[in-house]
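Subgroup meeting minutes
Present: P.N., E.W., G.H.
Scribe: E.W.

1. P.N. recapped why we're keeping a running log of single-chain structure predictions: easier to compare across weeks, and new members can see raw inputs and outputs side by side.
2. G.H. added today's entry (90 aa).
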Amino acid sequence: MVVKSSGDYDLPFGATLRRLRVGAGLSQEDLALEAGIQRNFVSLIELGRNQPTITTVCKLARALGLKASELIAETERAANRRSPARGTRP
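Output recorded in log:
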């Protein structure tokens, strides 16, 4: 079964994770080891095919030397760059 992107944040989260991981000089395997998750799960998150739980977001952020709130804020900025109309209230 193929699971398609279902949210406004799965692709921006994946792109943000990849940008921060590469910026930190980490491979997917390095990040996965530091976060205590499977390498293929990192890949699927970066591709926007899987969405992490809050626990996984916290583990990934810690492995990148960030607070989870910083990782989420970066994702929100990326999502807003993709579609400026999103996230605004009337």
